[in-house]
Every structure is written in structure tokens, then in C-alpha cells.
Amino acid sequence: MREHPTADDDFAEFVRTSTGPLLRAVLVLRFFEDRSVEATAEALGCSTGSVKTNTARALAVLRADETLRELVTGGGNR
């Protein structure tokens, strides 16, 4: 095990501990498997709107967390 956690470790922990299986699935498919909105919606059997909404919600949570903000904003304070 690594001595110091990385940003990827922080993101993975967020995914593991976030609530709701749909949110977790959207994050994994969109960001870990790099699937498109359409491919994610097809895999989950939901609308593209649902994928976009859940992606936006997850990113809002990431932006609100000081330790994870860099993943979303590239280090800036937006």
C-alpha cells in the first residue's frame, strides 16, 4: 500500500462511500471506464438526462470538497 494517498485514491473513496447505486454507477462508467453519456445511459437502462443529472450532482459534491476540488477544477478555486 502506498504511504500517501493520491487524488485517484480520494476519488475512488468518494465513489465507494457516496450514496445511491445509480450515482456510483454513473461515476464509474463515465470517469473510470471513460464511457460517453449515451453509452452510460444504455448500460444503465436510463435516459441520457438521468446520466447528465447524476454526473452534475456528483461533480458538485467533488467541487465542494477541498481535497477533491483539484480533480474537478484542475487545482483552481472556481
TrEMBL record:
Enumerate the InterPro entries for this protein. RNA_pol_sigma70_r4_t2 (IPR013249), RNA_pol_sigma_r3/r4-like (IPR013324), WH-like_DNA-bd_sf (IPR036388)
Which keywords describe this protein according to UniProt? Sigma factor, Transcription, Transcription regulation
UniProt keyword Transcription regulation, yes or no: yes
User: Does the record carry Transcription as a key word?
Assistant: yes
SUPFAM superfamilies of this UniProt entry? Sigma3 and sigma4 domains of RNA polymerase sigma factors
Top-level lineage group = Bacteria
Boundaries of every RNA polymerase sigma factor 70 region 4 type domain copy: 22-60
Assigned protein family: Belongs to the sigma-70 factor family. ECF subfamily.
Q: What is this protein called?
A: RNA polymerase sigma factor 70 region 4 type 2 domain-containing protein
- UniProt source species: Saccharothrix mutabilis subsp. mutabilis
